[in-house]
Design brief:
- The protein is mainly α.
- The protein is 75% helix and 1% strand.
- It contains 25 helices and 2 strands.
- A two-stranded antiparallel sheet has the order 1-2.
- The longest helix has 42 residues.
Length: 541
């Protein structure tokens, strides 16, 4: 009875501090958040601009498909996590209650800070890459040199900071609105993003299969198409010799491409019927984006050989930007050089990138809210605006960190390196995933009283232990492969690992300092974090 009473006390305390947050995100909303965090714009470019050149000749369809299948197991683990603890920061709640309070907080701390910094680097991509690329496409298609000058201006350090700051403010304002309004904004952006991909499909499917070489030469110079593979080979490109091992190596990038399908777990306190909607929403977002990217790959293979796509990606990554334009939006534009179609695609790319940043602001702020409920951050950060129903201070903290990321990216820093970020996220996720995998054995009473999805078994073995075990093995492989295979491991320099170690260590230091501070005032983090929130819905709106 004492345990039940303590649990009820914890739930009441959580509901009181979180008053104002309501469950408004249903299945469709969870899917929209997942798709927008994966990003039809940012991730839609990666298979052709990055993966193809990292492993020249690798089968993109195999990499994306195997990654998607393994991500389904990962999505299940996180959906059950959100079902077990349907509150803000569900992964943090589970890891600190089940496995280790210090390790759980340090992992969450690392995730939030790096996510916020990477949100800044994503914002910086708008003036650094997205706008210049789109202006270069428009300038090339229309033969307007002034657009090329504008592209260079946007990508300058001052341009990146100015445009990036404006985009940060836009993302901040768009994320302090009520959750239902944010969902509508993201939904509108998703419709625009789907329309953009529809245009790309039309541009590439409405021409003969032999049309691409002539279209490329018309805009990039006579004979240019035929020289790309030779030029890439002269710069050191070598085709892969072991497709199976390369496909496995590419899974880290595959996880990067699909990263985001599970983010509703981080704000499970605003998801209606989390036991159903978290799993369905994450799986739908995964399969939907996978289908779009696979379709685009197959359509491009209809027009050009995979080796040519690898050459373009490789040349771009080695600095040959005058001859390389490895962007699917450029490939489509030269086939159907219609200024209005290119304009709609350009708008869709910018809007969905800002939507992507909003999803980062959303999930990071909710995890900070969970820390505040436990007393791990100063009083007041858990403030929820009574009208907007938004944790404004928590969102502001994330926006400030993101602005540091913008500035770092503008100056050529590596804090917001997205590939490094995915590696760091994988390391940080080992704690909550291990907690969820062993939860049935470490907290037997909680497991037996949990919701049906959490308690599912195959014979006598809990399903979450099986799915969590597969997820844990997948995460460990992603870590190992980043060092075994030079294409990825080469980007993880000693400095990056030091940054991760310092960040994780600072989380541990913060936890113990905060624990000492609370004990001096008669409170104990051990007591605050000793119970699992009960599964019961807050008010729905």
């Amino acid at each position: 009875m004492a345990g039940i009473s303590a649990g009820a006390s914890f739930v009441q305390r959580s509901l009181t501090k979180g008053r104002g947050l309501v469950r408004v995100v249903g299945f469709l909303g969870a899917a929209i958040f997942g798709i927008q965090c994966i990003s039809l714009s940012s991730s839609g470019l990666l298979p052709f601009s990055t993966v193809a050149g990292l492993w020249p000749g690798a089968n993109l369809v195999s990499i994306l498909t195997i990654a998607m299948i393994l991500c389904l197991f990962h999505a299940y683990t996180y959906a059950v996590m959100g079902t077990l603890a349907p509150y803000s920061g569900a992964d943090y709640v589970v890891s600190t209650r089940v496995l280790s309070r210090p390790l759980g907080f340090a992992a969450s701390w690392t995730l939030v800070i790096f996510s916020a910094l990477v949100a800044g680097s994503l914002i910086a991509l708008i003036p650094q890459s997205t706008i210049p690329t789109l202006l270069r496409i428009l300038g090339t298609v229309t033969n307007d040199s002034s657009l090329l000058e504008m592209a260079a201006s946007a990508a300058s350090q001052d341009g990146v900071i100015l445009i990036g700051t404006i985009c940060t403010v836009i993302a901040f304002v768009g994320t302090i609105l009520p959750a239902r309004t944010i969902q509508r904004i993201l939904g509108g952006g998703l419709v625009l993003g789907i329309a953009g991909w529809g245009i790309l499909y039309y541009q590439m499917l409405s021409v003969p299969t032999s049309a691409f070489p002539a279209a490329w030469d018309r805009f990039m110079g006579a004979g240019s198409y035929g020289l790309q593979i030779t030029l890439a080979a002269a710069n050191g490109m070598q085709m892969v010799t072991n497709p199976a091992s390369v496909t496995l190596a590419g899974l880290l990038v595959g996880f990067w491409i699909f990263y985001g399908y599970f983010i509703p777990t981080f704000f499970a306190g605003e998801v209606k019927k989390p036991g159903r909607n978290l799993l369905a929403g994450s799986w739908v977002s995964l399969i939907f984006t996978w289908a779009i990217f696979i379709g685009a790959t197959m359509i491009l293979w209809r027009l050009v050989p995979p080796q040519w796509l690898s050459a373009q990606s490789y040349l771009y990554q080695t600095g040959q930007t005058e001859t390389a334009m490895p962007w699917i939006i450029f490939y489509a534009a030269i086939l159907r050089p219609n200024i209005y179609l290119v304009g709609v695609v350009s708008l869709a790319w910018v809007v969905t990138l800002i939507n992507l940043v909003q999803t980062y602001f959303m999930y990071c702020s909710r995890i900070i809210l969970a820390w505040a409920k436990d007393g791990l951050v100063p009083f007041g950060i858990d403030y929820v605006h009574p009208t907007l129903r938004s944790p404004m201070l928590a969102v502001l903290i994330v926006a400030v960190l993101a602005q540091f990321g913008v500035t770092d990216a503008a100056q050529g820093g590596a804090l917001g390196s997205q590939l490094n970020f995915v590696f760091f996220v994988v390391c940080a996720q080992l704690v909550p995933v291990a907690a969820m995998t062993f939860f049935p054995f470490l907290r037997k009473e909680w497991f037996e009283s949990a919701s049906p999805l959490v308690r599912l078994k195959v014979g006598r073995v809990p399903v979450i232990t099986i799915m969590g075990g597969i997820t844990l093995a997948y995460l460990l492989w992603l870590i190992v492969s980043s060092f075994l295979f030079p294409a990825v491991g080469g980007t993880l320099r000693a400095g990056s690992l030091v940054i991760f170690a310092v960040m994780f260590g600072s989380g541990l230091v913060w936890y113990f300092m905060r624990n000492a501070y609370m004990r001096a005032r008669g409170r104990s983090l051990a007591q605050e974090m000793s119970t699992m929130p009960a599964v019961e819905d807050e008010a729905e709106a």
